[in-house]
UniProtKB/TrEMBL annotation:
Classification via InterPro entries: CRISPR-assoc_prot_Csc1 (IPR017576)
Superkingdom of origin organism: Archaea
Record-given protein name: Type I-D CRISPR-associated protein Cas5/Csc1
NCBIfam families: cas_Csc1
Pfam families: Cas_Csc1 (PF26241)
Length: 235
C-alpha cells in the first residue's frame, strides 16, 4: 500500500494562539488536524457562525475514510519564529460597529497592545494522509499545493510524496502525533502527550496490535495504528 507524506513550508507568518502568557500570544510547533482538514479542502464549515459551537464532527462526516495526521516539525530542523509587537491595533476577528450614541466604549481609551509569536517564513512541518478508499495518486491530485492557515490566514506550500507502507501486527511505537480522540485504545507505555485546543495530541506511545509502517528510506520508519479516524471517539 501507499500513503501520502506532505511537507508544509510556511510562506510568511502563520499564527495560532497555542498559549497565552500575559499579553504574549504564542504559536506552538504543531498544527492540529482540525485545521488541516479545512485547509486541504476536505471539509468546509459554515460561512457565518452564530452558534459559536464547533462542528468538526459534522463537517468531516463524508471524509472519515481519509485520515490526516497533525503536522509536526521535520526531524532535524528547528522551527523559525518571528515576534511582532502591536499597539492600538485590534487583534480580533471582527469588530462590532456601534452607532455613536450606543457605543459603550465612547468615553474610554482602550488601546489594544501586546505581542504575538508566529511561525516564520520557511518553517517546514510534516504530516501524513492515509486513505482507506481512495487511490493515493488520485488523492494527491485532489490536494492543493498552497493552503491558508491560522488566525491571519498565513500562506503555506505543500510538497507531496507517495510513500510505500505495509500493514503489520505486533508491538510498535507511535512516533508521529495523532489526535487523542482519533484512536479508541490508549497507549500502553512510553507516553508523551501535549495539551492543545480543541484536541490534545499523543506525540509518542507504545501499542500492540495492527499498525501501518511507512518506509521513508535509510531505516527511517513512521508507525501509525490502523483504523485511525478523525475524532473517532466523538462520533
Amino acid at each position: 500500500m501507499e500513503v501520502l507524506e506532505a511537507t508544509l513550508r510556511t510562506r510568511g507568518e502563520v499564527t495560532f494562539t497555542s498559549r497565552e502568557v500575559g499579553r504574549l500570544a504564542d504559536t506552538g510547533t504543531y498544527i492540529l488536524n482540525t485545521a488541516l482538514y479545512y485547509a486541504l479542502g476536505l471539509a468546509s464549515g459554515r460561512y457565518v457562525d452564530t452558534s459559536y459551537e464547533p462542528t468538526y464532527v459534522e463537517d468531516t462526516a463524508d471524509v472519515t475514510s481519509v485520515y490526516v495526521s497533525p503536522a509536526a516539525p521535520v526531524s532535524g530542523t528547528t522551527p523559525n519564529y518571528v515576534t511582532t509587537t502591536y499597539n492600538a491595533t485590534s487583534d480580533e476577528y471582527a469588530e462590532v460597529n456601534y452607532s455613536a450614541q450606543d457605543d459603550p466604549n465612547a468615553k474610554q481609551n482602550l488601546p489594544s497592545y501586546g505581542r504575538r509569536r508566529s511561525l516564520a517564513h520557511g518553517t517546514p512541518l510534516r504530516f501524513f494522509v492515509i486513505s482507506r478508499n481512495h487511490a493515493p495518486n488520485k488523492l494527491a491530485e485532489r490536494l492543493p499545493r498552497y493552503i491558508r492557515l491560522g488566525k491571519k490566514r498565513g500562506k503555506a506550500r505543500l510538497d507531496i510524496q507517495r510513500r510505500s507502507a505495509s500493514k503489520q501486527t505486533g508491538k510498535f511505537q507511535l512516533n508521529h502525533p495523532i489526535g487523542a480522540y482519533d484512536y479508541p485504545d490508549p497507549p500502553e507505555g512510553n507516553v508523551i502527550t501535549k495539551s492543545m485546543k480543541p484536541t490534545p495530541l499523543v506525540i509518542q506511545g507504545d501499542y500492540t496490535g495492527e499498525y501501518i509502517r511507512i518506509d521513508r528510506g535509510d531505516n527511517d520508519q513512521v508507525c501509525f495504528p490502523t483504523g485511525l479516524t478523525f475524532l473517532e471517539t466523538k462520533r
